[in-house]
Design brief:
Layout lengths: L1 E3 L2 E3 L3 E5 L3 E3 L17 E3 L14 E8 L8 E8 L2 H16 L10 H11 L5 H19 L9 H43 L23
Antiparallel strand pairs: 1-2, 3-6, 4-5, 6-7
Helix pairs in contact: 2-3, 3-4
Length: about 220
């Protein structure tokens, strides 16, 4: 974004860079040697001759937002795009998000924001706070906590809801299986009680008159 007579205009720039490196050359014209005994290396960047090749390197974008408090310059940079059109699309997306109020310069994650938010709610009732913390710890932080606020999209929320629904379905299926096993166990127990004599009056099993080995049984 550039200033023209006080009016800011969205004017991003794009460059292609690569990860190619070359030795650092000293004033004597010889490569500088590092502590490991090997030549020190530096990234070539935009001057790499291979960038003339079509598929070498990736695209980076840069633009400025309207100056912040105290006239502080706000620079937006992103990189790693395979195509220039991808970089252009991202630049427009970032600009639209910034004008809508999103802090596209912040590196804060959703998890850090959630914790900061709940910490700032000093007047919450104990039960309300417990409910909020339960939702944060069980759902929001596990699914969204690692994502930067500036990168959060609707699709991330959709993925979270899908995962929660799958977990609920698995929990229900697990409980049904537990119920089936409990019913089978109870049925087996009833059958055992019936065949072993527990069902007779008094609730004690019938005992043979004599035990194995010729010893008389108790009566």
């Amino acid at each position: 974004m550039t200033a023209t007579k006080g009016i800011y205009v969205f004017d991003p720039s794009y460059t292609r860079r690569c990860a190619c490196q070359e030795p650092v050359i000293g004033e004597d014209g010889a490569p500088k040697i590092g502590a490991n005994g090997k030549p020190r290396m530096r990234k070539i960047g935009v001057t790499c001759p291979k960038l003339e090749e079509k598929d070498h390197g990736t695209w980076y974008l840069y633009f400025e937002l309207e100056a912040g408090e105290g006239g502080h310059r706000q620079r937006v940079r992103r990189g790693g795009f395979a195509k220039k059109d991808d970089a252009k699309k991202k630049a427009k997306e970032l600009y639209d998000a910034a004008t809508a109020g999103t802090d596209v310069l912040s590196d804060e994650t959703c998890g850090a924001f959630f914790l900061r938010w709940i910490k700032g709610k000093k007047s919450l009732a104990r039960s309300t706070r417990h409910g909020y913390e339960e939702h944060l710890n069980n759902y929001l932080i596990p699914h969204l906590g690692h994502i930067k606020r500036r990168d959060l999209k609707v699709r991330h929320l959709d993925l979270m809801y899908d995962a929660i629904e799958r977990n609920n379905e698995e929990r229900i299926l697990h409980q049904l299986r537990v119920n089936e096993l409990q019913e089978a166990r109870d049925e087996a127990h009833r059958a055992w009680v019936k065949t072993s004599g527990y069902a007779k009056e008094g609730g004690t099993p019938s005992v043979p008159a004599s035990l194995p080995g010729g010893h008389p049984g108790s009566t």
